[in-house]
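Good morning,

Attaching, inline, the backbone tokens for the sequence recovery test we're adding to the shared suite. The designed sequence is right after.
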């Protein structure tokens, strides 16, 4: 027998409020990385980011919420490998190999398109023609906003494939977590397991490149604190909460706003100049996101698992 879930309508303002908070926190990662990477290798930054986040969440994960079964633990560890280690580490490694940062950011911004494409076969949540048009317009806005920062470097071809693979892995992991019901575990528990899993793997990579001792006394601590509070607890927490409540493609579509909002963060924090293209791209992206969100269902659940696959 298939277990049916009773869907309760979400308050009208819940989605706009969550979406606004999500994009503000999701686009904040650049600021934290810039602070922390001034005096440390990016793999060391990722190690301390995931370790601190996981350790802070650990007592709450153990004491608050349902008992974590071995099956749930292993499943969340697998998603931690994908969403923490392969996604964050893949982009970081691509940059270290010489892929321009602007191009890596563009690959990351293709996540909404990949999630939209995967939602139909995996979740049974097909986008309407209007929503597909909005998705394409959102991508066009991203291209306009980031046009001045795009360039091709001298990295080996496989390094570009690494960045594309990291994007695809995160998109696939997002829809699979919704498809398999992984969001039934409270966010603080799943995020704790995923962060500690990523920390263990980043420790192996960082150790091979040097010491795990953090370079204290500079901006490293500020960067890690920023990455833990805003880019991990808030960004991932909001992302997983939104995926729990709304269709995956609807949630991912908001991420198209990440490049222009990141530029606004950089302007506010570091005084980096803003360009006319950025504002044009922001306007185009906002229009595309509006088309994608319009007439979208306020809540949706994944298709029930096939009993033969259970």
């Amino acid at each position: 027998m298939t277990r049916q879930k009773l869907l309760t309508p979400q308050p009208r303002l819940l989605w706009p409020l969550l979406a606004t908070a999500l994009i503000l926190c999701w686009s904040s990662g650049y600021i934290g990385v810039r602070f922390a990477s001034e005096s440390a290798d990016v793999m060391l930054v990722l190690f301390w980011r995931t370790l601190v986040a996981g350790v802070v969440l650990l007592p709450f994960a153990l004491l608050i919420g349902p008992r974590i079964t071995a099956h749930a633990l292993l499943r969340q560890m697998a998603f931690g490998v994908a969403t923490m280690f392969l996604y964050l580490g893949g982009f970081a490694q691509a940059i270290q190999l010489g892929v321009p940062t602007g191009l890596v950011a563009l690959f990351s911004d293709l996540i909404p398109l990949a999630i939209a494409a995967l939602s139909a076969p995996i979740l049974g949540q097909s986008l309407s023609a209007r929503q597909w048009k909005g998705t394409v317009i959102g991508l066009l806005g991203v291209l306009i906003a980031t046009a001045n920062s795009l360039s091709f470097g001298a990295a080996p071809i496989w390094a570009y494939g690494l960045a594309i693979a990291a994007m695809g892995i995160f998109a696939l992991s997002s829809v699979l977590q919704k498809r398999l019901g992984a969001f039934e575990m409270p966010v603080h528990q799943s995020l704790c397991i995923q962060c500690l899993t990523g920390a263990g793997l980043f420790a192996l990579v960082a150790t091979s490149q040097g010491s795990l001792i953090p370079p204290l006394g500079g901006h490293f601590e500020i960067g890690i604190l920023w990455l833990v509070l805003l880019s991990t607890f808030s960004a991932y927490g909001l992302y997983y909460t939104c995926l729990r409540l709304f269709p995956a493609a609807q949630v991912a579509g908001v991420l198209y706003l990440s490049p222009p909002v990141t530029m606004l963060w950089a302007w506010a924090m570091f005084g980096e100049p803003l360009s006319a293209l950025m504002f044009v791209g922001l306007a185009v992206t906002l229009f595309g996101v509006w088309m994608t969100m319009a007439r979208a269902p306020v809540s949706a659940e994944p298709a029930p698992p096939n009993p033969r696959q259970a």
